[in-house]
Amino acid sequence: MAVGALGDLPDLPTLRAVTAERGDVLTTPTPQRAADPLGEPLARALEGDEDAFGEVWRLLHPPLLRYLRVRDRDTAEDIAAETWLHVVRDLGRFSGGPAEFRAWVFTLGRHRAIDAGRARAARPSTPTAEVVDIGTAPSAEAAALERVDTEAAVRLVASLPGPQAEMVMLRVVAGLSVAEVAAIVGKKPGTVAVNVHRALKKLARTHRARAARG
């Protein structure tokens, strides 16, 4: 099932009911980022406002989908849909601000992507060509290096080694802090910062080299 338009949002008939269960804390709040556009609609969504939840979805679904496409292009939309269903189901147990919510959503998506990858690897019928193609970066992507939100740039990032690609997507595309990325991928903040820096330098070199070749 793919989540491609607002009309495809998960059914929310019990949103007000689940938000009433907010006694269990899933995350530890940290100071909110200044003028975070997610803050106001998230606050209303946590009070059961379904229109506000739609705003939250519109803000987070595109970067979530781009991140998942780096992990697995073929199943990204299905995994995104499953992620949002989980969000709706457990929204009443969430407590925190926009930074914690953003990190929670991407953590859910990451876990589902990992599970899907393991399930696919266990199936011997998976064509090898599909796996190889996922990590291929066509030459046209260099022109989109400075516009990370384009399809080409996503593919270019996907050409990086898996761990580096994931860190770049979470840091640059998802907009998570170094500390939040570190918590999600299970690495030290310093390791994340160094890997992201090296990856961006590598992408910049690739961009310049391809631009020079015309």
List keywords for this structure.
214 residues; mainly alpha; Rna Polymerase Sigma Factor, Chain: A; Arc Repressor Mutant, subunit A; 10 helices; 62% helix; 0% strand; disordered N terminus; RNA_pol_sigma-70_dom
How would you describe this protein?
- The chain has 2 domains: 37-134, RNA polymerase sigma factor, region 2, helix turn helix motif (Rna Polymerase Sigma Factor, Chain: A); 137-214, Winged helix-like DNA-binding domain superfamily/Winged helix DNA-binding domain (Arc Repressor Mutant, subunit A).
- Mean pLDDT is 76; it is low at 1-5 and 126-149.
- The protein is built from 10 helices and no strands.
- The protein has helices at residues 15-19, 39-46, 50-71, 76-90, 98-121, 128-134, 151-158, 162-173, 178-185, 189-212.
- It is mainly α and 214 residues long.
- Residues 60-121 form the RNA polymerase sigma-70 region domain.
- InterPro entries: RNA_pol_sigma-70-like, RNA_pol_sigma-70_dom, RNA_pol_sigma70_r2, RNA_pol_sigma70_r4_t2, RNA_pol_sigma_r2, RNA_pol_sigma_r3/r4-like, WH-like_DNA-bd_sf.
- This is Sigma-70 family RNA polymerase sigma factor.
- Keywords: Sigma factor, Transcription, Transcription regulation.
